[in-house]
Amino acid sequence: MIKFITPDLSDKRIWFAAAYLVKNGFEKVSDSRNADFILLGVNPDRKLLHSDLPIFAGNISADNVFDYTKNEVFALKNAVLTAEGALSLAVSESDGSLINASILIVGYGRIGKALHRYLSVLTNHITVCARKEEQRTLAHSYGADTVAFDALRVKSDFDYIFNTVPHPVFNEQELSAIGADTLLMDLASFPGGVDRHFAEAKDIKLLIARGLPAKYSPKAAGEAVGSAVMTMIKEVIV
Fold first, then answer.
1. Bridge partner residues of 104 (DSSP)
2. CA gap 42, 144 in Å, rounded
3. Comparing C-alpha atoms, which of 81, 88, 141, 67 is closest to residue 111?
4. Alpha-carbon distance 82 to 113, whole Å?
5. Number of neighbouring beta carbons within 10 Å of residue 193
6. 75: closest CA among 52, 58, 96?
7. Burial of 78 (0-12, 13-18, 19+ CB in 10 A)
8. Vertex 116, ends 112 and 118: CA angle to 5°?
9. For residue 185, which of 211, 168, 214, 210 has the smallest C-alpha distance?
C-alpha cells in the first residue's frame, strides 16, 4: 500500500484529494518517515518542499516536485470547474443576468471553450476573441461571433467580458473601449491580462477571479487532484 502525508491542509482541495486517495487504496499517515510521498496544494509554501520524498503539488517547480496541474486530464477538469465558478461569480456580483446577455470571451483555450459551452445554454449573444484563426473558426462553428484582438480597441457594449489570456490584453486602449456597465472578469493566472490600475482609474467593474475551483467546488477540484496524482504516481513510485 502506498502511503502519503499532507503537512498543510490550508488548500481545502487537498483534504478532499487525500480522502479520494484513501478511498482508492492509498494510506494517509502522519509521520513523513512512514510516507512514500508528500501531497501539497497549489502554490504551496516553498518551505514545505525541503524533503527527500517525492512531492506532488500544483503550479510550482522544484527538483523533487511533480506538478499535477501539468496533467492534461486535470487541466481539462479544472477548466470546467473554473468556468462553472465564473458563472456563479458573475451572477452574484452583477445586477444583471446571464440570460440573453451580450458576452465576450477572450481566449479560446480550455477555459474559454468551457465558458462557451456553459454560456451557450443561456444566451445566443456570444463573441469569442482569439488570436489564432483556427480557434476563431472552431468558436464560429459552435455558434459564436468571432473577432481578432485588435477589435478589443473598438467601443463595445458587452454586458460581461471574461478574460482567460494570461498576459497583457486589456491595456489603456482596450479598457477605454469597455462600456460603463460592463462586468470584466479576469480568470487568467498571475499576472493576469488586465491593467488593474488603469481599470480602477476608469472605474471599470473588474473582478480578479483566480483559483475559483478551490472556492466554489473544492470537493470536485480535490478529487481531480487525487485522480491526477493516481495517474502520475505510476511514473514515480513502483
1. 127, 161
2. 33
3. 81
4. 11
5. 20
6. 58
7. buried
8. 120
9. 210
pTM for this predicted structure: 0.93
Contact 232, 32 (CB under 8 A): no
Q: Look up residue 198 and give its three cell numbers.
A: 488603469
pLDDT grade for 30, boundaries at 50, 70 and 90: very high
| Residue that the C-alpha cell 477540484 belongs to | 221
What single letter denotes the amino acid at residue 78? Answer: N
Helix (H) / strand (E) element for 40: namely strand 37-42
**Phi and psi dihedrals of 168, rounded to 5?**
-50, 120
Q: Which residue's entry shows cell 460581461? A: 160
Cell of 37: 510521498
pLDDT at residue 117 is higher than 80: yes
